[in-house]
Amino acid sequence: MKLLLQRVREARVDVHDETVGRIGPGLLVFVGVQKDDDERVVERLAERLVGYRVFSDDQGRMNRDVREAGGALLLVSQFTLAADTGKGRRPSFSSAAEPARAEQLYEALIAAVEARGVAVARGRFGADMQVHLVNDGPVTFLLEL
Fold it and tell me: Which of 1, 50, 134, 141 has the most CB atoms lying inside 10 A of its own CB?
């Protein structure tokens, strides 16, 4: 599983001109599920995601996590993150999880984050989504195990 985090001032996801997920300050997280991922990976990455210190403290250092900053998460499934881009000019998706399994693990990640006390908004799995954001920084990190 790969999580691409972007610190945002605000973000939203629209599907067919309808907003399906919206947050104020927090993290926009694109979620790529790989075929070897399981519930252990979900739990470990949920813990890292919630505790990842990317928000500034009073001295301006990245020393606060999303809970301490009073932020929220917007989790958006993005299977292209699981692509193998090591060769050629076309990505290979052979390492991506099958859609049913990917959706199950995406939902498990949402539940694991919510269980840790963080507000979560979401995109719509498998939909053609338009993602709107105001990046804060910019600050972007890729989390994976």
Answer: 1
The whole-angstrom separation of Cα 96 and Cα 25 is 30
Cα–Cα distances in Å, from 100 out to 4, 29, 57, 117?
A: 21, 20, 40, 27
Domain that holds residue 26: 2-138
Question: Catalytic annotation on 141?
Answer: no
pLDDT digits (tens, 9 = 90+) for 50-60: 999 999 999 99
* Counted domains in the chain: 1
Of the residues 19, 80, 85, 140, which is catalytic?
80
Residue 44 tokens read as: 């470990």
140 has catalytic annotation: no
Q: Can you tell me the distance from the alpha carbon of 103 to that of 60, in angstroms, rounded to the nearest whole number? A: 37
